[in-house]
Amino acid sequence: MNSIRLFLLSLALALVVKAQQPPPRLPACAFPCIEALAGGRMATTSTARALVAPDVCLASRDPSASLQIQTQIQNCLLQQCSPAESLETVRAVADLCSWPVRSRKASLLALFAIQIPAVLCLGLRLYDRIARAARYAVDDYLIMAVAPLFVTFLAVGQYGSVVAFGVDVWTVPDGTIAAAMQAFYVDEMLYLAILALVRLSILFLYLRLFAPQPPAAASLREPHRRSTSDASAPSTSTSLSMSPPSTPPETPTTASARQRYRTVYYYRFRAAVLVIAAILVVLPTVVVFFLDIFQCHPVRTVWTRWTSASPVSSLVEETTCLDVRALAYVAASFGIVQDVAILLVPWPLLFVLRHSLFPSVRSVTALTALAMFSLGIFVLITSCVRLHFLVHFNPTTTTNPTWDNTDSLIWSGLEVSVSVIVACLPAVRAMVQAAYRNRRGTL
């Protein structure tokens, strides 16, 4: 009983202290904007109590009016005040008028549903190749480079989501805003690097999967820990080869088809893959990557301009920034073209293998390709949706970056995670298949 009385007394005391606290003070530059919204009915005082006008505090009762008044206040303040003074003013008005608090934190945290499977697939792919491969291929080294970048991308993105993104910028402390925007800047670079490496790994995986195999040659992908003494034991190699079958006996017709595959079809396929890798993936990514790094001069402007104490006019004179919106369009458009090219490039060769040269190619090959194609279509859809949100969002003019960037964070995280799953899918499928065969053999 005494504890309840003590709690109620403490609560009442806290309410009294809060009621007696002086109202927040406003920067002098904010008065013309607030007075204009109040219709001129504003007392000449430096405290936020003067803002109690029906026109301004209508935001506390009508969500649509809230967004309209917030936009009007911020646009006016950016012409009169510094970014730091603008945030201070909006915080005072939001507190006084009890503006509704919006949050999309749950949507950002929901990304774990796809990010965790992506991490598991990446781990299985790395384990399979490290534990079983006789030697590493180019796609293996590319995936090894993806692993630390992807983990860092997830950690930095979730940090920004927890501390700032998904809520309105005036609800976030100034120091946290700068840290969150710096994390967003780092994640932009990681996004470009990871997608480029994943796309290259898929292209080089194509070359490894479809590489011609000599009729009697031993597979290069035999487990390197397997000794000659257990050569008769069942193999646990997770071979991924989709190339023409090399099972004897070799007939003249099969030998001719194999020669034609090696010298004509695979040669053309390899040339197409290398052109896509060099012209469509590497070159645009390098250009966009460096333009994104140096999008502003000085670079720190990218994350300090939202809380700078310098007037906006001074910032415009002292800093130079590229058209980030146009740069985002270019990067997203190239990404869509790359995804389409990667999706389509193996299908002519698969058609030749299946219907012209080697009708006996197992259906599992087609099923694996179909699964990769389906997930690749999903990656393409996420790229298009992300581009849709970029069209409706201008990062150079937004006054609410922690809220307006939420959709970009969600769809970027989704695109990267699904791309990693697509790159790891063949190895995971082969690993699960080998485990199933071994388990069935022991029964």
UniProtKB/TrEMBL annotation:
This protein's name: Cfem domain-containing protein
Main location: membrane
Annotated membrane topology: Multi-pass membrane protein
Keywords, in A-Z order: Membrane, Signal, Transmembrane, Transmembrane helix
Gene Ontology cellular component list: membrane
Domain spans labelled Rhodopsin: 124-213, 268-433
Segments for region (Disordered): 220-255
